[in-house]
Amino acid sequence: MEVDFEFQKERKIGDFVQSFIDLFKLIYKHFVTTIFGLSVLPLAAIALVYYFLSTKITFSAHSSSFEDIDGFTWAALLIMALIALGLYVYGISIEYFILLKERKNTLFTGKEVLRNFRTNIGKYFMFLFAMILALIVVFIPLAIVAVISAFIPFIGSFAIGILMSMVGIWLFSSFLFYREGYSDLGSCFTDAYVMLSKKLIQYGVATYIVNFIFQMAVMMISVIPLIIVSLISYNFLGMEAAFFDSSWGKLLMTLGGMFITLFTLFLYMSGVLANGIIYETAKDLKFGERIYGMIDQIGGGNE
């Protein structure tokens, strides 16, 4: 399916929100099925670990903790696996976005997305280490601003959220600069900052608003099934402490963990789209690629 969406154009804050909604409506079926289709095996492995951990937890009157030290080991492994899964989903979502903006259709498959991810996986690891170093460098000034913002009545939490969004779009743009060959690893952070600097606050506000609206929408959609499951569990299965030691209780805990995992991954995916739109807008303002593309088309038409 052709995607009638202009990635590279000047946008205001309200335009970013509308552009995200428009793009998501055009591609959400293909986007979700492609990304989660590529994540079936990792998600299945995570579900097994969730269930195994649930068997290590007891809620009896005599104990309400892990049965043995292996439970803590498995919990640590689960956290590491969740981080790896999040990075994987974020990475293939980026590759999806790159294919989408290049082809302007959804005719590509998950195999192409995965192939591009594997081809560039070295860049992902290299950037990950460079990003950690960059965050160490900017940690102190960011921490100072965050602490000051925390003491601002009413708007302090929003200011911190916008600050984190600004950092997120900076890191996202830095990686795409490196991934698409505009900059090398050593200069991508400064190049991305120079590109974003004039409108960084505006981009941060736009990203924060988009993510907030999307998060609220997903939560509202999810709350009804959660209420239904809770009512069924309470009325038919019972919600005593002993219930969570039963097989049904373990299953319910596993499903709860998987729901939180899927919800988080869904937010990662939406974040890629939101950041991608802002990145393309900022890149167009900096390099004028849309103008150059129009000139090339005119020149090609005259030949």
Helices, strands, pairings?
Layout: H1 13-37, H2 40-55, H3 69-103, H4 110-119, H5 121-150, H6 156-179, H7 188-196, H8 200-237, H9 247-287, H10 289-302
Keywords for this entry:
membrane; transmembrane; mainly alpha; ABC transporter permease; 303 residues; 10 helices; disordered C terminus; transmembrane helix
What would you say this structure looks like, in words?
- The protein is an all-alpha fold and 303 residues long.
- The chain has one domain.
- It has 10 helices and no strands.
- The protein has helices at 13-37, 40-55, 69-103, 110-119, 121-150, 156-179, 188-196, 200-237, 247-287, 289-302.
Radius of gyration: 22 Å
- Return the structural class: mainly alpha
Distance between the termini: 29 Å
Output mean pLDDT. Answer: 81
Query: Which regions are unreliable across 5 or more consecutive residues at pLDDT < 50?
Result: 298-303
Number of helices: 10
Number of strands: 0
Largest sheet: none
The arrangement of helices and strands along the chain is: HHHHHHHHHH
Count of the separate structural domains? 1
What is the helix fraction of residues, given as a range? over 70%
Strand % is under 5%
Task: Choose one word for the global shape.
Answer: globular
Give a short summary of the structure:
With 303 residues, this protein is mainly α.
